[in-house]
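Need tokens for this chain, all 282 residues.
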Amino acid sequence: MRLIKMAGGLGNQMFIYAMYLSMHKRFGESVRIDISDILHLHPHNGYELHDVFCLPPCEFRANRLLKKVLEGTLFRIILERHQHGSMKAYREPIYWPWIYYKGFYQNERYFADVEQEVRQAFTFSAKKANHQSRLLMERLQADPYAVSIHVRRGDYVSPQYWQNMGQYTSKIYFLSAIERMRALVPQAHFYVFSDDLLWVRQNLPLSDATFVDWNMGKDSWQDMMLMSACHHHIISNSTFSWWGAWLNPRTDKVVLAPQQWDSSHMASEIVPPSWITINNLP
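Here are the structure tokens for all 282 residues:
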């Protein structure tokens, strides 16, 4: 049995599921996603994958105490951070019957071999969306100059977060990214997605932009759906906006990302090489 620990918000859940698809292709039905912990911890909006996408069952769950005992006694633990970029632990057979994988796998190289399967799995159903989102979806699909800009603040500006991870999507970054996008796409019309729209209105030169302000709580996934329908993107150092840009299949898209992703990672370790990184250090 190979278990992959599920964790994090929707963006991280999608990376883990994409990794699962790649490993399932190699190792078959022995691979399962462990949701024992996430069902109790409820990060962000909880375990959302099956609420957002139409996915086949692939989960394992157990009593948390029992799982903890099994994890500590039977399973060999494979930590992503200990692999130092090597894919060997995920590609080659390990001669032990119980293996437990922990990590977030925030790079498309973890699922490059199943890219089309990932895109198919993460197909949004507009029928699940609210009326406002459906109307905007139609407008975005017809607008060749639609640019999504995702400004994540919320927990990112809390001392608990930035003391550990750093604060790398500052006003300076967004000003530079907007200027660069306008140079590359002169007729750009910006569609703003943010958990702090007041800050955006007060700090960024986007007076003629469209502010998407109706998707909250369990409807938050619709922002990702709408971002993916835009032609170009300015993203935060956020897996949510990473997927919003990546799921856009257009080959001529322009994606701008912060050069420093967090205190431990450069964007080059996380975003596709075709995306343009913008200096976001003071």
